[in-house]
């Protein structure tokens, strides 16, 4: 794969990651405060609701995880990629992204309704699904706010969420059941989403511009693939635990996912803050050297990652199986370097050439198929520890597919305008 730039100039690392330190600190601080509150809240609620009550809550939240990326479907990432490159169509692009988010909201609600149809225990899973949908919409709206240079709205949004979540956790510790807890959580997200939308003032005349709509929808769909795969894979692993009779281990897996997500989401959020600058720098530049470097790193990741995962799973089954949730958390922490490495590669490729974006989206889709097969091969005998290992294997499959398509000499698809 080669870069499609026309200037012949390479990418400057110094210019690629330049954001005002105060803005960076406030954005990361607010988001980390919220994520940290989520972790502490889950620890407190696990003790307050007991293993049975918390396992039901964890299963509902984990099972609804796939709705969060579906409800946003790459809109935030697409907006942060395309809006910084636009000059005279910013407001129209905002209108297109808001309209797309509304369509996905309705589609997500329809999916949730179908999944809950005929269930006697639909209340908690339904509320968890609504939470995931509203949270996905919230991330779209704060992303659009940052794209139009209103980072303060993102900061305020997450500070409010942290404060409300802390209050709801106290209520949960004093007797509030999971369903009421989630209902109030969802209501908070709805109020914040309405306030953020009012501040954007979208221009919907852009919906009549087919070129803008096609570029926005197409790029959003491709950039959503990795996020959708992430959400669906987590839900798939909870399903595997359930159907193989290991649902009691759901609480340990969910705690591990929540705890690790603080670090991983902070890293992903940092990349989103930098994305407007990265997008501008990568636009119409010669990226041949960068893609070659990525290929070398991917080769090292695959060659070292396979034996690393095999050894860590074996050691975990011998040493950590009896620890339950803490053991799962330790193994998850051991997989974090792999998640970081592939996440970084995916990020650069999404914001590079159209071919690179299609390549990493294809690799993510293939990794989901591989995880589906591995989940029902490993989880039945390895439980939650096996589920964590499957996540790491999925990243290595993604890396292997991308590496194969980055190999020099392979024919590449033609660029698609607008992405």
From TrEMBL:
Q: Give the keywords, sorted.
A: Membrane, Transmembrane, Transmembrane helix
Q: Which residues cross the membrane?
A: 32-49, 55-75, 96-117, 123-144, 156-175, 181-200, 221-241, 253-274, 294-317, 329-349, 361-379
Q: Which residues are in coiled coils?
A: none
Protein name stated in the entry: Polysaccharide biosynthesis protein
Taxonomic source organism: Streptosporangium oxazolinicum
């Amino acid at each position: 794969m080669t870069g499609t730039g026309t200037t012949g100039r390479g990418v400057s690392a110094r210019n690629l990651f330049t954001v005002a330190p105060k803005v960076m600190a406030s954005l990361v601080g607010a988001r980390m405060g919220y994520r940290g509150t989520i972790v502490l809240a889950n620890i407190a609620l696990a003790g307050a609701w007991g293993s049975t009550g918390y396992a039901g809550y964890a299963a509902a939240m984990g099972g609804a995880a796939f709705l969060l990326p579906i409800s946003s479907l790459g809109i935030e990432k697409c907006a942060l990629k395309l809006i910084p490159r636009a000059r005279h169509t910013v407001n129209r692009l905002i209108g297109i992204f808001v309209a797309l988010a509304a369509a996905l909201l309705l589609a997500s609600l329809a999916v949730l309704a179908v999944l809950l149809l005929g269930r006697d225990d639909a209340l908690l899973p339904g509320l968890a699904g609504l939470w995931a949908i509203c949270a996905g919409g919230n991330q779209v709206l704060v992303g659009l706010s940052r794209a139009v240079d209103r980072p303060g709205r993102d900061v305020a949004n997450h500070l409010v969420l942290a404060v409300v979540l802390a209050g709801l956790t106290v209520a949960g510790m004093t007797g509030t059941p999971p369903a009421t807890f989630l209902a109030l959580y969802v209501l908070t997200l709805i109020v914040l989403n309405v306030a953020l939308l009012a501040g954007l003032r979208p221009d919907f005349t852009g919906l009549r511009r087919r070129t803008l709509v096609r570029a926005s929808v197409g790029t959003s769909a491709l950039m959503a693939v990795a996020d959708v795969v992430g959400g669906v894979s987590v839900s798939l692993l909870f399903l595997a635990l359930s159907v193989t009779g290991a649902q009691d281990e759901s609480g340990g897996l969910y705690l591990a996912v929540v705890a690790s997500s603080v670090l991983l989401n902070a890293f992903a959020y940092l990349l989103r803050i930098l994305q407007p600058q990265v997008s501008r720098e990568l636009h119409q530049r010669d990226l041949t050297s960068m893609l070659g470097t990525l290929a070398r790193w991917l080769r090292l990741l695959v060659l070292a990652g396979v034996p690393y995962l095999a050894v860590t799973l074996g050691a975990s089954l011998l040493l950590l199986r009896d620890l339950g949730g803490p053991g799962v958390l330790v193994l998850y922490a051991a997989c974090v370097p792999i998640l970081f490495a592939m996440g970084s590669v995916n990020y650069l490729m999404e914001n590079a050439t159209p071919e690179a974006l299609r390549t990493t989206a294809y690799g993510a889709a293939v990794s989901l198929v591989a995880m589906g097969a591995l989940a029902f091969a490993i989880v039945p005998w390895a439980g939650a520890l096996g589920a964590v290992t499957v996540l790491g294997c999925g990243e290595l499959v993604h890396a292997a597919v991308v590496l194969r398509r980055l190999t020099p000499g392979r024919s590449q698809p033609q660029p698609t305008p607008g992405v």
